[in-house]
Structures are given as C-alpha cells and as structure tokens.
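Box 3.1 — From sequence to structure: Prostaglandin E synthase 2
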Amino acid sequence: MRRVNGLATTLSRAIANGAPPAAAQRRLVQAGLFSTFSSSNNSQGFAQSIADQFRKASPSVAGGVAGFSAAATSLAQGAHAKEPVQSQKFLPKDVVLYQYEACPFCNKIKAFLDYYNIPYKVVEVNPINKKEIKWSDYKKVPILTVDGDQMVDSSDIVDKLFQKIHFDNSATDSEEERKWRGWVDNHLVHVLSPNIYRSPSEALESFDYITTHGNFSFTERLVAKYAGAAAMYFVSKKLKKRHNITDERASLYEAAETWVDALKGRQYLGGSKPNLADLAVFGVLRPIRYLKSGKDMVEHTRIGEWYSRMETSVGEPCRIKE
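Predicted structure (token representation):
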C-alpha cells in the first residue's frame, strides 16, 4: 500500500510541476512513448526513460511509475490468407513471448507470429515488479524465447525469425521495405502517443484498456487508471511540442495518408502479400485501432481498406491458450 500511496503522490507532484527536468525531457522525447528500436540495441522506450527520472526523485515509487508508463506504451486487437511456414524449414517446439498485452512493439511480434502461423505462448509481465523476467538480464519487453534461446528488441526479433523462415534463399529487405520500416520507427511511433492521450477522456480510455488487460493487482489497477491517465495526458503535451506537432489528429491522418500513398495502388507494400514493412505498420497501429484515435483515423483517411486486408492476412491469433 505504501508503494501505491507513494506513486499517487509522485504523480501528483509531477503533474503540478509541469515539465520534468530538461535532461529528463530529452530522454523522454528521444525515446517517445513508443520508442524507436530498429537501429540500436538500446531500445529502452518511453516507459523506461520516464521511470528512470522518477527513480531519481523517489526510488520507492519507481517501480510503479515504470509499470504504468510501460503499460501506457500501449493498447489492441484478425482471418485467413496467412503465410504458411514450411515445417521442414522452421518448426520451433516452444515459442514464448514475454509482453505487456497493450504494448505496440509486443503486438508487432504477435502480428509476425500470427501471419507466419507460428504458435506461441504468452507470459504477461507485471510492469511494476517485472518478476516474470527476473531470469533475464534484459529488463524490457518484448522478450521472445525460441526453444530456450532468448531474442530481444522487436525489430531484431522480426529479422531473426524472418531469416530462420527464409534461410535457404536470399530474401532480404528491399530498399523500399527498409525505408518504410525506418519510417515506422522514426516517425509513425511519435505521432501515436499525443493522439491516444490527447484529451483527459482519451487518456482514461487508453488506461482503461491498459489496466483491464495488464498484469496489475486490484489496487494498482485502481491507481493506475486515474493517476496514470493524468500523468500521461501531461507528458503527451511535452512530446507533442518536442515533435513539432500542432494538431494531433492532423498529424495522425497525414501519417496514414502517407502510408497509403506509399502503397501506390498495390494491395500491400509487398505487392500481392504483406512484407515486413506492412507488418510493422500494422503491428504498431494494432493497439490503437479500436480506440477513439484509431476509429477517427479509419473514418477520416483511406487507410481502412489496407488495414482490413491486413487483419485478414494476419488472421486469427496463433497464441496457445494455457
């Protein structure tokens, strides 16, 4: 209970004081709410960055803030036409994803696994104590184990799995595919957080999903929904300013239209079937699709048809229910 009370106090002070210290702002903005992760192993992300700053101010609540902020990187939701995995090529016996249900980067991994029809188990990590990944030196999610071998960083995980599936040919990213995977990491992710926390009501909507699907105790869930939503509402304004976003929805719509233009009339960027860039965009957008921001995006842009095709291509989850 002391942890929860401390968390509420710290969040209140953070909100009252407005912006975090300049150094904290730089780290927060650099990572962004959804972080970038393709070009560096240091894919810490917004959740850990903000947690580090709160840890300096109040170690007793660092875990709580880390957890709520980590879960806040998130939110989610697919029917055939999958890419079959030939059993003679890659048929792992045990695939386990350590995740936050709402995390977009975890959803990126799930989109890949679902598309390639690879069954996997899920371990929901408690974002406060992270006890489920205490065995690992890597303290961020997603973590994927494949027959006991650990993989980390969402883009690296996708690349390694893709290579395992296509090991007998020279299938590699095209220049176009690399460009748009980079666009996802360096631009699209920065547009999302100012949108899902744009208003108090949208912040509450986001945290309602987070606390319902995340691994929280009853008391943590209660505090996280309201204190976390309030904190992230203010943090999102700092991120909006840092990324020169004047209108949250306009930036989201522009990003969606930019992606549709990149398709150049094709069903997918990959042509007749999705490539890794398609899966990256879909994975990152998947958590927000059925929030208000995602509904607005589909209603006011041309992305809906592509997204529906992706839902069909990615198909039903291959998650193994335990």
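Summary of the box: The chain has 13 helices and four strands.
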